[in-house]
């Protein structure tokens, strides 16, 4: 069988070791600028995961909020920054201990949906990753918060 | 500890410290003096019992209180934000003791004002002072908090006193029996917390089957409005009424507790039995609330 590869990018970000089928959801959440070149591989063979997805985004360096979002949904992903076709840095995503401001609490009775308050969620590692609201203390799976 | 917002914020040392202080206050070994101090009791949800208990606690220490109950005569009815209300009241007082139907409101308040905040109940979330007085009551009756078997009966889904008590007891290696109708069972997030802490629990609806194992039976009211089908309510509620017969096989050390008010979930015939502890439990609330107020005001 011919080996399937996703072409190299010149400058940008590579998100590797995504669970199979996750790449379209991740690219939707990252909201890259229209017209940005994106290479996507899905259900590729992988030594580490059996099958994996890969995303390569040209001319886009992931923000800290985007990295946190990826970590919450796909804690096994790796991030690589590419400069002039060379690896500038490569690391596994790390789950933060807390995320602020990114998500809305789904609880309609939470103070954050009634007064002006910056939302805050504590991360509970696991499968799936869960987030606990810093105010109403309700706990939610990460994918319930990320819309 | 500047504020008391959630049982999740307290270590077992914090809990034992407050339990010990409540005991010293009750015994007269410590007589706190809050002369010149003013606590603002902001009860956006009406309460008689908890509000009176805090009012009594402060006044027995020679302190004073400002009481706001409901929103009827306040600027909240005019549309003032909670933030503005809290900031203004914090200019008049040394402490805010707050009950709100909004979950997380007390935590929010503690971040916005420069004086201690005590959570007197926030929606279906926490009621830490009730949990602490419940722990004090358990300590007094069982002479310990560790390794007890606790039965929680009634509405475990919406009862914030139950939620706070489960969290409060968790550091002390309990075994729980949760006895409720299936749609009023303990919320999943609390069961997950217990699993993470490897605390054993059992869920069921047959009180008689477990009563002989219990050290504490904590009863809460099953409210009619939690049932969409009145017939089901009428059919079920009898299974969760505690009578003298329910306690036939109880251990001698068992105590029946209830956060009150009760309606008919504990028959009045139980009141004279050695098992009934709910009125003494309410009295313990004053000592524990004195301990909390003293601890927080003396820490600043």
List the topology elements.
The complex is a heterodimer of chains A (147) and B (300).
Chain A: E1 12-18, H1 23-30, E2 38-46, E3 50-58, H2 64-73, E4 78-83, E5 86-92, E6 98-100, E7 120-124, E8 130-133, E9 139-141, H3 142-145
Antiparallel strand pairs in A: 1-3, 1-4, 2-3, 4-5, 6-7, 7-8, 8-9
Chain B: H1 12-27, E1 38-43, H2 49-60, E2 64-69, H3 82-90, E3 95-100, H4 105-112, E4 117-122, H5 128-142, E5 149-153, H6 160-169, E6 175-179, H7 188-196, E7 201-204, H8 207-210, E8 216-219, H9 230-237, E9 255-257, H10 278-299
Helix pairs in contact in B: 1-5, 1-10, 2-10, 5-6, 5-10
Spatial order of the strands in the main sheet of chain B?
Answer: 7-6-5-8-9
- Give me the number of helical elements of chain B: 10
How many helix segments of chain A?
3
Helix content of chain B: 25-40%
The biggest chain-chain interface is: A-B, 16 and 19 residues
Main sheet properties of chain B: 5 strands, parallel
Order of strands, main sheet of chain A, comes to 2-3-1-4-5
Query: What string gives the helices and strands of chain B in order?
Result: HEHEHEHEHEHEHEHEHEH
* Order of secondary-structure elements of chain A: EHEEHEEEEEEH
Helix content of chain A: 10-25%
- Topology, number of strands of chain A: 9
Strand % of chain B is: 15-25%
Calculate the terminal CA-CA distance of chain A, rounded to whole Å.
38 Å
Shape, per Cα inertia axes of chain B: globular
Largest sheet entry of chain A: 5 strands, antiparallel
Task: Characterise this structure.
The complex is a heterodimer of chains A (147) and B (300). Chain A is of the alpha+beta class. Chain A contains three helices and nine strands, in the order E-H-E-E-H-E-E-E-E-E-E-H. Chain A has helices at 23-30, 64-73, 142-145, and strands at 12-18, 38-46, 50-58, 78-83, 86-92, 98-100, 120-124, 130-133, 139-141. In chain A, the strands form two sheets. Chain A has a five-stranded antiparallel β-sheet, covered by helices on one side. In chain A, strands 6-7-8-9 form a four-stranded antiparallel β-sheet. Chain A is elongated, with a radius of gyration of 17 Å. The mean pLDDT of chain A is 87. By secondary structure, chain B is an alpha/beta fold. Helices cover 38% and strands 15% of the residues of chain B. Chain B is built from ten helices and nine strands. Chain B has helices spanning 12-27, 49-60, 82-90, 105-112, 128-142, 160-169, 188-196, 207-210, 230-237, 278-299; strands at 38-43, 64-69, 95-100, 117-122, 149-153, 175-179, 201-204, 216-219, 255-257. In chain B, the strands form two sheets. Chain B has a five-stranded parallel β-sheet, with helices on one face. In chain B, strands 2-1-3-4 form a four-stranded parallel β-sheet, sandwiched between helices. In chain B, strand 6, helix 7 and strand 7 (201-204) form a beta-alpha-beta unit. The longest helix of chain B is centred in the last third of the chain and has 22 residues, at 278-299. The model of chain B has no long low-confidence stretch (mean pLDDT 91). Chains A and B meet through loops of A and helix 4 of B.
């Amino acid at each position: 069988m011919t080996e399937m590869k996703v072409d190299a990018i010149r400058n940008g970000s590579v998100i590797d070791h995504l669970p199979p089928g996750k790449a379209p959801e991740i690219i939707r959440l990252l909201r890259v600028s229209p017209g940005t070149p994106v290479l996507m591989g899905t259900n590729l063979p992988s030594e580490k995961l059996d099958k994996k997805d890969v995303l390569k985004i040209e001319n886009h360096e992931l923000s800290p909020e985007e990295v946190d979002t990826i970590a919450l949904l796909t804690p096994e992903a790796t991030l690589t920054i590419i400069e002039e076709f060379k690896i500038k840095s490569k690391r596994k995503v790390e789950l933060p201990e807390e995320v602020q401001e990114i998500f809305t609490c789904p609880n309609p009775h939470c103070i954050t949906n009634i007064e002006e308050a910056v939302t805050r969620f504590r991360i509970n590692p696991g499968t799936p990753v869960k987030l606990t609201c810093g105010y109403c203390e309700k706990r939610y799976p990460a994918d319930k918060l990320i819309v | 500890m500047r504020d008391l917002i959630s049982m999740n914020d307290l270590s077992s040392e914090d809990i034992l410290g407050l339990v010990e202080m409540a005991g010293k206050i009750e015994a007269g070994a410590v007589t706190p003096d809050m002369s010149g101090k003013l606590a603002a009791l902001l009860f956006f949800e009406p309460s008689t019992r908890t509000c009176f208990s805090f009012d009594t606690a402060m006044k027995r220490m020679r302190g004073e209180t400002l009481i706001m109950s409901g929103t009827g005569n306040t600027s909240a009815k005019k549309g003032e934000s909670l933030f503005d209300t809290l900031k203004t009241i914090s200019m008049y007082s040394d402490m805010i003791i707050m009950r709100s139907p909004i979950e997380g409101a007390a935590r929010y308040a503690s971040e916005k004002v420069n004086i201690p905040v005590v959570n007197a109940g926030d929606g279906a979330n926490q009621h830490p002072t009730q949990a602490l007085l419940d722990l004090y009551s358990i300590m007094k009756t069982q002479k310990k908090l560790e390794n007890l078997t606790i039965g929680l009966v009634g509405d475990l889904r919406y009862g914030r006193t139950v939620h706070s008590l489960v969290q409060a007891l968790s550091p002390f290696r309990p075994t729980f029996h949760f006895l409720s109708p299936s749609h009023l069972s303990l919320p999943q997030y609390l069961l997950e917390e217990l699993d993470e802490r490897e605390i054993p629990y059992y869920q069921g609806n047959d009180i008689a089957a477990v009563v002989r194992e219990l050290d504490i039976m904590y009863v809460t009211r099953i409210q009619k409005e939690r049932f969409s089908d009145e017939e089901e309510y009428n059919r079920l509620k009898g299974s969760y009424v505690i009578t003298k017969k329910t306690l036939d096989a109880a251990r001698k050390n068992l105590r029946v507790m209830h956060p009150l008010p009760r309606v008919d979930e504990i028959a009045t015939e139980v009141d004279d039995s050695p098992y009934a502890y709910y009125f003494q439990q309410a009295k313990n609330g004053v000592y524990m609330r004195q301990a909390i107020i003293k601890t927080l005001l003396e820490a600043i």
